[in-house]
Design goal:
Layout lengths: L4 E3 L2 E4 L5 E4 L7 E4 L2 H22 L7 E3 L34
Antiparallel strand pairs: 1-5, 2-3, 3-4
Amino acid sequence: MSGRYQVEIQIGRQEDGLWRVEVPGLHGCWVDAPTLAQALADIQEVIAMAVDDSNEQGWELPESVTPLEGEPGTAVLPVILSEHRFARVRPRSGRTKPPSH
């Protein structure tokens, strides 16, 4: 086994504003975080621990976790612009306000 997996996750936002990311069928494999980026980073660590433990115990992995053959190809990744620290400087339009008399 290569130790590389592709994992189906579910993403949602809770009433308290935190992002919840979880792996269907993988017991105890979920995280809550204030940003989606943090939740996605954190869930990878939780998945690694849960899969390693499942493998060590000889437990079967759920259908949401499958061995990855070759290199990762494509993925769908949600991006929430308001959660990132970039700042776009918007150019002013060429029009100026007419002088007031």
